[in-house]
Amino acid sequence: AKKMDDKDYLYYNQNMKNKMKKKKEIEDKLRNALNNDKFKLKYQPQVDLTDGQAKYFEALIRLKEDNISPGEFIPVAEESGLIIEIGRWVTKEAIEQLAIHEDNEIKISINFSVQQLNDKEYIDFLVEELNKNNVNPELLEIEITESVLIEKEAEAIEFLNQLSQLGVQLALDDFGTGYSSFSYLAYISFDKVKLDKFIIDRFLEGQNLKTIANLIKLFHSIDLPVVAEGVETKEQYINLAEMNCDYIQGYLFSKPLANNKIKKLLQENLIQ
Ligand code: C2E
Ligand code: CA
Ligand code: CA
Ligand code: CA
Predict the structure, then answer these.
(1) How far is CA 247 from CA 45, 139, 140, 145, 234, in A?
(2) Does residue 90's CB lie within 6 angstroms of at least one atom of ligand 1?
(3) How far apart are CA 97 and CA 240, in angstroms?
(4) Pairing mode, if any, of strands 39-48 and 247-249?
(5) Would you call 75 exposed, middle or buried from its count of C-beta atoms within 10 A (0-12, 13-18, 19+)?
(6) Is the confidence metric ipTM above 0.90 for this complex?
(7) Percent of the chain with pLDDT over 90
(8) Which of 21, 24, 211, 228 would you label with 103, given CA atoms 20 to 30 Å apart?
């Protein structure tokens, strides 16, 4: 192999410096957003294939006045520890939104990062917010990925079981991207599983159709409703409907929406 010469080192150093500078900039943005109310949530409907209704929404965080995506800033929030405060903000905001829509009984799911397990008072905080806003815990759902369980298995299981006992719903997110093990299903009573866009795109054609169909059957056999994520085409929708997939979340029906768009959507049938 070629050895690194001075020029390479210089380049390498410069590259590292740029990356660290970028990270620092994002961290500053996140601190600023926490202090100045510059986060917002967008809500993407999960359309029920039996009736075309959207009563379930995934809350997805955004920065106001800035196009930086959560795919870019959430990892920085996780590394810096800011995710704890951000996670609380998301929780509070979602619960307040549930309170606003109490007559419509919508459900909102929020994403939860493994680093938030370090927030030892999170559950107390959650319960307090639910009580303060008079919101039924069953209307709130927490989405976690398998990585949470792999990184901190014992802690995660205890945490999730506590949530479950409170009545908070649990969704297994991004199924099909990691190990996609079924072993966790024995320890945690999930209420829903979300098939990642990755497997929707790779497997929803030709011979592979059977794989998804059987996966959905398997989840149904243990009473787990299935959400297909990242559905963009009519063909995918038709295939998933034939397989009795329960919910579809994707641009085909709706992008993530501002909160003031929820009400109107509740009156629509999205599959007509
Ligand atoms: P995720 O949890 O898998 O969320 C689904 C992502 O897929 C969202 O991206 C959503 O906008 C996008 N999406 C939905 N339908 C389609 C589609 O039809 N086509 C395509 N191409 N994309 C679609 P988003 O909002 O950019 O979020 C990216 C990731 O950032 C999320 O992935 C989640 O891991 C993380 N994230 C977002 N909000 C939060 C949050 O409040 N807390 C935490 N911890 N993570 C969050
Ligand atoms: Ca999610
Ligand atoms: Ca997902
Ligand atoms: Ca994903």
Answers:
(1) 9, 16, 17, 18, 14
(2) yes
(3) 30
(4) antiparallel
(5) middle
(6) yes
(7) 78
(8) 228
